[in-house]
Hints:
The protein has helices at 29-36, 106-112, 125-138, 159-169, 177-180, and strands spanning 2-8, 41-47, 83-87, 115-123, 142-151, 173-175. The protein is α/β, with parallel strands linked by helices. It has one domain (2-180): Rossmann fold (3-Layer(aba) Sandwich). It has a six-stranded parallel β-sheet with strand order 3-2-1-4-5-6, with helices on both faces. β5 (142-151), α4 (159-169) and β6 (173-175) form a beta-alpha-beta unit.
Amino acid sequence: MDRALIIVDVQRDFCPGGALAAPKGDEIIPAINQLMNSFNIILASKDWHPAKTVHFEKWPPHCIRGTEGAAFHPILHHQKIEAVALKGTGNSDDGYSAFEATNLDVTHWLEQKNTDTVFITGIATEYCVMSTAMDAVKAGFKTYCVTDAVAPVNVHPDDEQIAMRNMQEAGIILITSDKIYTL
Ligand code: VGL
Ligand code: ZN
């Protein structure tokens, strides 16, 4: 069995200068780039919204499919990504989790690669990262959240802390990148 790296929504719009920026969204990218060197199985998700969606009643318009804002952040080593899961593609739901992708059956893809363990990185900790991690547990994967490779939006100042606690209560293991190299 093998382990997979999952990179959630490291897109321009979620980084400083973007439409829905996590204040430190770009600062986690070097850690993700380094982690990619230690994984053979790498999947990324993209928030991939239509121009009109109920999702934009809660959020400023962001990651509209095909636009610059929806592209991977330019410093992410995206050439190493083997599969891209597009989510939030409908007009009537949020699609926070990578497991809600409409172009790819993420569970099936991971199982075909003999994955039993996943490491979740990316943006935003309290929305798409947490949803993806929760769905990974539900699908039966041993699930880690890499704390130095995720960034919150922090609409409320405590949101990241609450998300970390919720993830731990769901059986998700919090880990730092340096520990992964010695696992
Ligand atoms: C996200 C808010 C709205 C995320 C996506 O990627 O965490 N957050 N859409
Ligand atoms: Zn979104």
